[in-house]
Automatic annotation (TrEMBL):
Residues 1-121 form the NAD-specific glutamate dehydrogenase C-terminal domain. GO terms for molecular function: glutamate dehydrogenase (NAD+) activity; L-aspartate:2-oxoglutarate aminotransferase activity. Signal peptide: none annotated. PANTHER family: NAD-SPECIFIC GLUTAMATE DEHYDROGENASE. This is NAD-glutamate dehydrogenase. It comes from Xanthomonas perforans. InterPro entries: GDH_C (IPR048381), NAD_Glu_DH_bac (IPR007780). GO terms for biological process: L-glutamate catabolic process. Pfam families: GDH_C.
Length: 122
């Protein structure tokens, strides 16, 4: 389900965990955790649209990649936090970006195309 540009980061994470002595299966599971963050949005969209979660997740990740949203999330995470209110503001930025991505995914799912790539290209 991960895009071609996200896969190297995932594989590097797996290798990093294995280099620390973790078994391959556990290293994979730990590396997958960061990609589970949008799981609730994906499942909710799949439920309301009566689609398979895997199909929604493909659109979610392809659209995110097309809009460079992983980079934008990283920039938000890199914002300096000096106190509680900065942390709250950073959290709100993340939540707002995720909400916009969820809304865009729902719209893209209505577009013509048989694959996630086709839908995002439209």
């Amino acid at each position: 389900v991960l895009s071609d540009t996200q896969r190297p980061q995932y594989e590097a994470s797996v290798q990093e965990w294995q280099d620390k002595g973790l078994p391959p299966q556990l290293a994979q599971q730990l590396s997958e955790l960061r990609y589970l963050e949008p799981a609730f949005d994906i499942i909710e969209t799949a439920r309301t649209r009566k689609l398979k979660p895997v199909d929604v997740s493909k659109v979610h990740f392809r659209l995110g990649e097309a809009l460079r949203l992983p980079w934008l999330f990283e920039q938000i995470d890199a914002l300096e936090v000096n106190g509680r209110w900065h942390a709250v503001a950073r959290g709100v930025l993340r939540d707002e970006l995720a909400a916009h991505q969820r809304a865009l995914v729902a719209q893209v799912l209505t577009l013509p195309g048989s694959s996630a790539e086709d839908k995002v290209a439209n």
